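[step 3/7] inverse_fold.run input=structure_tokens len=176
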């Protein structure tokens, strides 16, 4: 199977899992790109996720574009990006058709509520997966813990962008 077809298949699977939001996809991205195909190392994947989080747009699309480009240039970026949004487009069309045919909104609400625990599990696993490749020592653990507590206890007073910038500046100062 050609690399572009493999990219499409992998990112299509990632797109299927993207219904919990971008963070929920990190574990599957890691599995497909690093574990299953070894297209990137864990450290390279960490960098892709970091850049994807810093750039505007959904993390799944940004990760697909960056990974596809790294693997197979502009063609790879286009194929991976299209693949990751294909399931969402299909689901949106299916949802629109279902809504027009269902008699009760209650059925849709029950289906959406049933998805919440699964999505939460993906998010928790993603935090674990990304954390295990991002925290590689005591210093990075302290920076991560400080950032977590700043966001957790800072509430609406501390903007997440400020936390990211502060962590980056601390990293620059420490890891010269």
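[step 3/7] decode complete -> sequence:
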């Amino acid at each position: 199977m050609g690399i572009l077809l493999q990219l499409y298949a992998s990112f299509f699977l990632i797109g299927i899992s993207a219904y919990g939001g971008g963070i929920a996809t990190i574990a599957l991205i890691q599995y497909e790109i690093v574990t299953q195909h070894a297209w990137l190392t864990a450290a390279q994947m960490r960098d892709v996720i970091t850049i994807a989080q810093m750039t505007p747009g959904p993390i799944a699309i940004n990760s697909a574009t960056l990974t596809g480009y790294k693997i197979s240039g502009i063609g790879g970026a286009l194929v991976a990006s299209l693949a990751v949004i294909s399931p969402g487009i299909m689901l949106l069309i299916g949802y629109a058709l279902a809504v027009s045919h269902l008699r009760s909104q209650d059925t849709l609400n029950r289906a959406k509520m049933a998805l919440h625990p699964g999505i939460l599990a993906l998010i928790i696993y993603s935090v674990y997966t990304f954390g295990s490749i991002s925290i590689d020592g005591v210093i990075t653990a302290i920076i991560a813990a400080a950032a977590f507590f700043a966001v957790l206890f800072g509430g609406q007073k501390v903007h997440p962008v400020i936390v990211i910038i502060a962590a980056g500046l601390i990293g620059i100062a420490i890891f010269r």
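[step 4/7] annotate
Helices lie at 3-16, 22-36, 42-54, 59-101, 105-134, 138-154, 160-174.
Residues 59-101 form the longest helix (43 residues).
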